[in-house]
Design a protein that fits this description.
With 342 residues, the chain is mainly β. The protein has 1 helix and 23 strands. The protein has 2 domains: 119 residues; 143 residues, Immunoglobulin-like (Sandwich). 6% of the residues lie in helices and 38% in strands.
Length: 342
């Protein structure tokens, strides 16, 4: 009797084991993909670099160059679901001239073999703060840009307190109906610009050293036409929707472009001065419509101890994304004026 019980127990164990094996689901192994990525520079369509550093050929410093810490933000659209993945750069793949590099990423396992998906890609330098923008909004193909672009007015200087200060253009790419094969037809990827850069030159034509201005505002100071989505006065969130390739803002005040220059320690140029007859350039990346209306200009110093409004600072014009537009201005102690190139 005891032997019969042992046999029955053994059979029962085999039956349970067999059922367990039949119910095991094998998970798809993550598929790694490497693609080559290039982009155009704001001032040189032939250049494809990503660091805003000056050199002899581009004295205003707008030649872009890939850096070893760069990454791409990816959004996969499949069966009305959205999966977000970061693509890390292969530092060893950066070309000698810095114009191209390879990025590696994993295709989400939820996308089945043989199925088609859409891919949306964003490049924008981030400050690493996950609450400060620089990511796709959960469950969407809407990208939330880095916040506080108003502080990012230089090419190479960061505030030690905020880690902001360098202009952060957003570039993007998309491709639809990609089949998930062993070697999906994704790349090469060529990123395109979603906005443009305004380079504001300011010259001190007084006979003495001055503090840098607290800020500069360009737009409609009392009323006017909506045109800019990352003006950020007041603080707001700017988003880019791949559904219609358009920007939006959480603020209803989208008629002014603000540059925060010397207000507090979050500004990279905080506490600096400008010598008599010297000039400085502020670089501001702009997410806006293409048809820019006539803009007023305001400048303020030392908490409005000195300030001026120019009600015809910039004429209306149509801009191209991916370009840099230079504005030359002067301050004589009382008047904020636009001038010819100096």
């Amino acid at each position: 009797m005891k032997n019969k019980l042992l046999i029955i127990a053994a059979l029962f164990t085999l039956i349970l084991t067999g059922c367990a094996k039949e119910n095991i689901e094998t998970e798809a192994e993550p598929k790694m993909v490497t693609v080559s990525v290039t982009m155009t520079s704001p001032e040189d369509d032939a250049a494809t670099r990503v660091s805003l550093t000056p050199d002899a050929q581009t004295p205003h410093g707008l030649l872009l160059k890939w850096e070893t810490t760069d990454k791409l933000m990816l959004c996969f659209e499949y069966n009305a679901n959205y999966y977000h993945v970061d693509a890390n750069i292969d530092a060893n793949s950066i070309s000698a001239n810095g114009k191209s590099a390879n990025f590696t990423f994993t295709i989400p396992t939820q996308i089945l073999p043989g199925e088609t998906f859409n891919l949306y890609v964003v490049y924008q330098k981030t400050n690493g703060d996950g609450t400060d923008g620089g990511y796709f909004r959960s469950g969407t193909k809407i990208y939330e840009l880095e916040k506080n672009e108003k502080d990012c007015i230089t090419l190479d200087q960061l505030s030690l307190t905020s880690q902001r200060g360098i202009s952060r253009p957003m570039l993007y790419f998309e491709k639809t109906n990609i089949t998930n094969t062993d070697n999906p037809d994704i790349g090469p990827i060529k990123l395109i610009h979603a906005g443009w850069i305004m380079a504001i030159h300011l010259k001190n034509i007084t006979d003495a050293e001055i503090d840098l201005p607290d800020g500069i505002s360009l737009g409609f100071l009392y009323f006017g036409e909506d045109w800019v989505y990352n003006g950020e006065w007041p603080d707001a969130t700017t988003s880019f929707d791949f559904s219609n390739h358009s920007f939006s803002s959480s603020s209803t005040e989208i008629s002014d472009l603000y540059l925060s220059i010397n207000e507090d320690a979050s500004n990279p140029l905080y506490g600096q001065q400008l010598a008599a007859n010297a000039s400085i350039v502020f670089y501001r990346w702009v997410a806006s419509i293409k048809n820019i209306p006539t803009l007023d200009g305001e400048i303020s110093f030392n908490d409005f101890e000195a300030w001026d409004i120019n009600f015809s600072m910039l004429p209306a014009r149509t801009i191209e994304y991916g370009k840099v537009y230079h504005v030359y201005t002067t301050w004589d102690g009382s008047n904020f004026s636009r001038t010819g190139r100096y």
